[in-house]
Amino acid sequence: MKALEKNKTWETMDFPREKTIVGCKWVFTIKYGSNGSLERYKARLVTKGFTQTYDINYLETFTPVAKSNIVRVLLSLASNLNWPLQQLDVKKYDIILIRNDLLEKNQLKQSLSSEFEIKDLGSLRYFLGIEVAQSKKGIVVSQRKYVLDLLKETGMSGCRLVDIPINPNQKLGDYKEGNLVDTSRYQGLVGKLIYLSHTRPDIAFSMSMVSQFMHLPNEKHLEAVYQISRYLKSTPGKGLLHFQKTTHQNVWGKVYYKFNY
Q: CB count, 10 Å around CB of 174?
């Protein structure tokens, strides 16, 4: 609460007549490091946006998010231009700082520290479930910890291993009949697997197949999702996406992929 008050997150005002209050709730989470160790406890006060009325206070409560494509472009730029990646913790939020000018970087950190509580986390190594390793040859990103945590969460840490994410001859659309499964569970599992598309293009086709049955999944569709999980169990550290530094100033760089077939 002190941090929220210090950052002037809200303004105190009289309650307007004929208006309904948008409620809020505390969300408590635990942040872990890339090695699984406890990093810190986090608490966030969030509003219940589903109670809002269209076009009322939308700008004030909107929270911008970074798209995965933008993150890829920034990593490619950092690799090609040999810019160091640094991570800052700005009290409740993480910031990735990319710049090769040390003076400008320090000025920016001083400016932020005058308004917010800043903690310098050093070189970027882990953010949003993505592990990052940078060298002069390029940048490597992976989601090994995310895969292992997902397998543990779904009770598949001890599942049998498979060599491919999906049977290429299997046509899931043919299974229109069969015992239905829990839609919420299916959607949740598929959604978590989709997040792996940041670093695992080898499961992109498989995910596009199982995503077609989010509205009414049956046992055959769920088994296909389990097949993807078994494949990930056999290759948790594979699917690394390398942003290879080029010999010329091509901001997109070279992207190549290691398959494990």
A: 8
Give the number of other CB atoms < 10 A from CB of residue 225.
Answer: 24
- What's the CA gap between 188 and 193, in Å, rounded? 9
Residue ranges with strand state E in the chain: 24-32, 38-47, 85-90, 93-98, 118-123, 126-127, 130-135, 138-142, 241-244, 254-257
Q: Any idea which residue has 């596009």 for tokens?
A: 208
Tokens of 247: 């010999």
d(CA 199, CA 201): 6
Question: Tens of pLDDT along 51-79?
Answer: 666 666 555 555 556 677 788 788 888 88
Task: Say which amino acid occupies 120.
Answer: D
User: Which tokens go with 76?
Assistant: 């490619």
Q: What are 257's two structure tokens?
A: 């992929």
Query: How many residues appear in the chain?
Result: 261
